[in-house]
Fold these 4 entries.
Entry 1:
Amino acid sequence: MRVVIEDHVMPVLMSAAIEAYDIVHKATERSKGKNKIETYGLLWGYSVPAKGENGEDKIIITSATIETSAIRHENYVQPDVESIETKKALIQQYWPHLELVGTFHSHPYDSLDDVNRIKGWEASSEEETGEYGDTEYWPDFHKKIVPEQPLLAHLILTVAQLQKTGWALPDLIECSNHSYFRISAGMKKLWLNSYVSVCNTIEDDIEESVDYEAYMYDDKITLDSPALMHRIFANS
């Protein structure tokens, strides 16, 4: 399985995550604002099924939109389902070459030590935290919002503040069933992680009904963003 992020998607993801991290967000002019909050968005593009014996399924992400109606907090983000369904219907009508192929959200942390201590670039899970987490939310989202799509990509962009301007060669970290980028960008350290959910159709011949089963992809996922690597090299 390969998740490919096209070049012009990265500015949307990075700017949204850093804005939510750095800029104070207020509900009203007089209300107390918050920074270092999570943000949430949708990923658009298309899927390519595996071809041939050694082929691999691919999800190609060509654009992204940010959910400004989402409830954003330091420890969670709650998107509005009506907003997602409205965008999905709009894009299907006017941009039929694009499909909803995934989700994106950020993980903000105060420091590099905090991220490393709890592996903040990884997806949260109910098993680890005792609360409804990323690995529970993604299959639910898949089943309820996009059951017609067999595969969805889910990206996490983790952000932490550095004590001084950092520079390091960007690298791709290979884990047992997913991969992620680790990037230094000025006063920020960023991690871009990838997961995939799967949704299968279940047909009941007796009841003459159709249901869906959604779960997390548990084989190797390769995250691919060659233009990002090139830009970091060229501009650092």
Entry 2:
Amino acid sequence: MIELNDVHKSFGANEVLRGITAEIGRGEVVCIIGPSGSGKSTVLRCINGLEGYDAGSIRVGGTHVDRHSPAIKHVRTQLAMVFQRFNLFPHRTALENVIEGPIYVKGARRDEVIPRARELLSRVGLAGKADAYPSELSGGQMQRVAIARALAMQPKAILFDEPTSSLDPELVGEVLAVMRLLAEEGMTMLVVTHEIHFAREVADRVLFLDHGTIIEQGPARELLSKPQQPRTQEFLRRILHPI
């Protein structure tokens, strides 16, 4: 579904990605972990064309990703992205946020997408919040609206960029529960996260990035229980057993 081959990306003199090669198969859940500044979010932004990359290649469903090519529109119909800070339209209700994409990107009729949008809000546990504005929702509720909005585009894969990192601890669980459900339903998901327990329970594979390089990758439970590389061991020790 998603292929990255020797992808490099620099911001000025700072080389953020130093040759990333990875594949994500259809129906697979892959979590990317690593310290801040390791290039995790940049990987996602390059995949959906929000950022260009300097060398290597990225393909989504066989289509080459080039943010300056007309084909990028096709790529973005196959991918949806859930951001760290929700990115909801503050002047739109939850329902209006969900229907925006299908109407303005795919040209769907409003009367056709509203029933589907209500169904998606119900699916993420927000059936009673369709007419609420973002300012009237908790952080966890806003992120679930963002997930419903992503699903409304009927994507073949969803990219999650640290979807729980800006939430209060007690709200994290409700978002992860929705993501677990999507995984069980077979949605292809690439998730940048610090939620190690979630990655262990839900992911098929884990990629550990550090300084723009994949230091280690493998089956989630195996890598997170018995990492082979000293840098991975040190990172997990600090995350799981903070002083």
Entry 3:
Amino acid sequence: MTGADLPHVLVVDDDDRLRDLLTRYLGENGFNVSAARDASEARASLSGLQFDLIVLDVLMPGEKGVDLARSLREAGSKVPILLLTALSETEDRIAGLEAGVDDYLAKPFEPRELVLRIEAILRRYGELPDTADAVLAEEAESEASFGAFRFDLSRMILQRGEEHVYLTTAEQALLAALVKRRGQTTSREQLHGMVSGNAIDPTASRSIDVQVTRLRRKLEEDPKQPRYLQTVRGQGYVLYTD
């Protein structure tokens, strides 16, 4: 890729040292990178430039990261957002998922893990090519239909009739996991492991519950009386496609 073709990432963090480190590291690993020290600077950048992903810190002076994410989603922005949190900030992670962020990464973290998370999100949005193994897996079963909905597993696209239904990458990953196990009850911990690759997370159950709630709002005529995405009390969730 030429420089102009590289994915453009906006790093928003008030910690000068960390912001500079991430900007340099991402730049060395195949990304165009812009940086902002707070929500105000981020808004200025977003008003004038196009980004493929935002890396957003939770705790910043003034407008918090979660509030910025929520505001962007309410304004209709579909730019993927990866939230940076501290290990102890459970409520912030849950609030971020509720606000529509696509993934979160707890500090401290290895910069390489951040790159892998970003690449995974961009692949789901079609901004990066899939690996050969992923392509083969997707070709094995590329589509699932239920009711008026059709979910394309190869492109992670949900349609209702001819209408495209917007999903965050976290919602895409969860729906894909449920589709692959449709008709089977899957625990929250299993779903979290399938979605994130890390089943060891004290917030796993709550984060899956949040994403299920968001999915139901998009899939169900009455989210409180779901037809497709149902709860199996004490066990987990199951997606019915018949």
Entry 4:
Amino acid sequence: MSAMPTATTALGKHPVSPVSLEVRDDDVVLSRWLWLVKWLLVIPHHVVLFFLWIGLFLVTVVAFFAILITGGYPRALFDFNVGVMRWTWRVEYYAYGSLGTDRYPPFALREVADYPAHFDIAYPEHLSRGLVLVKSWLLILPQLLVVGLFTGGFRVSFGLAAIIAFYAGVSLLFTGRYPRGMHDLNIGLHRWAARVLAYGLLLTDVYPPYRLDLGEREPMD
């Protein structure tokens, strides 16, 4: 009698995420004390972003129906929402989300090539009409529970990411150094949160990986 074939399983390779969150500032020099007053300096940004995020949620509602009917995310609406997330990431990186740069963030939705914090999402030519019904309230829940442990989300700086940024600020104040390990971990936490948010805002059908990609650059695969 021939032996029964042994059932095997394999860990599938996760699709490449269309969400890109990177930092490009190899020669960064940070002030020891400026981080203490950044809460004041970013107030104008927070005022503008408050209204932009209201717009983002309204646009997402419109995009929901557009995807449901046509299977596509209107490009102008997509670019606006990505722009709001990009602007937010620049402010977070400058202020208490990361404290990673002292260069004041620009007031712009577009990509600014010479600013150290970068964010983008590849535009999807087609999105699932079925997934749009369950992504934002059901499929995203396990990810939200995980992300909630280490960050208050992409928009608000709380949780582990903010704690790391605070300790980095203390290190800057007393030693003039931002420990590389703290920086890379902080970026990885924001990267994970950004992928989850992008999925919840219907900007992609690629489910966020349960993976902490540390460092300034996106992984190659």
